[in-house]
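Re: How this chain folds, sequence and tokenised backbone to follow

Filed under: protein folding, tokenised backbone structure, sequence and structure records.

Contents: The amino acid chain and a row of whole-number tokens, matched residue for residue.

Body of memo: The sequence and its backbone structure tokens, given next.
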Amino acid sequence: MSYIKKIVELESSPQSKQKAEVLSIVIPAFNSAKLLSICLEALEKQTAQKSCFEITVADDGSTDETLQMLQQLKARSELQLQWTTIPNSGPGNARNAGVVLSSGTWIGFMDADVIPHPDWVKNALTLIQQKPEAGAFEGRTEVTQLSRATPFTHQTENIDGGRYPTCNFLVRRNLAHFHPAYLIPFREDTDLAFSILAAGFPIIFAPELIVEHPPLPSSYLRPLVLARRYYYDGLLSRRFPRRYRNDLDAHQIIGLKIPHLKKKLYSLFVLSQIVFLGSQLFGLSGKSLFLAGSAYLLCLLMTAGASLRFANMRDLSLKDWLVFICQQHVLPWVMGYSLFRGWLDFRGEPEYSAS
């Protein structure tokens, strides 16, 4: 705890006062010019004075009009806006580059596809002053524009904490470093949070730090791409084995904390598929076939229900439903394969040490 106290005292010293007055917001961006412009417009409408915060966009090798949009915005805006470009290597590495360019002792991480509440900066500055012992604050991320949601969109929600998404995260500069091995937008935020907790700093859920996260455009390929991301569980599990087992993707069910809920549902569904197919291949009938079929249908309904949580089902076409049902049978196998590959490929990764 003396290490934490020393850092807090250093950041509260007169020499750091001037630097701490400015909050640095870092936004990674990859081919998201339109979404990024909406995010920056929301930051331009903040109730806090523009002298209180700066914005650094970390362009992750975009090939769209991101840089042109930033140049046009800077020419007509009062925002303290700057940017840097790196070869495409994932949002974690882009954020690292953005932190290097920033000047504040606290970093506010956002994603290009979120819309911050007008009081986000004001509330962030208040939290920093009121709770100087914190290592980080995770904000409230709300899914909006639900009419656009389908089983083939992507949206992020964090309404009660414990998820640590860096689409809405406020962290001390000296703790704001992402492990460079995460080359896609997955698990790099959890890795950062676990490293902060391992260093002895608390992460406080701050519901007053609100951003909206509208669904990303619908694509039949998106669920398959998302399932393949679990490859990086292999890296996270090697670096933080205890927290990975006990705290990752935990949900409260009837008062019980259940980590890895989605993976457990998928595992049950895979097992039910094997049992049901086996019962047919081996010619089982009567009660045995009924039980196998019932278990299979129950698991299908549970996994489908989780995928349809945000979906606007009234607007789904027959083709959408057929693709969705087919994908529900394939996704657990894609995830399982990705998990196994990651477990093998990162087997030499050492466990994280805060020392």
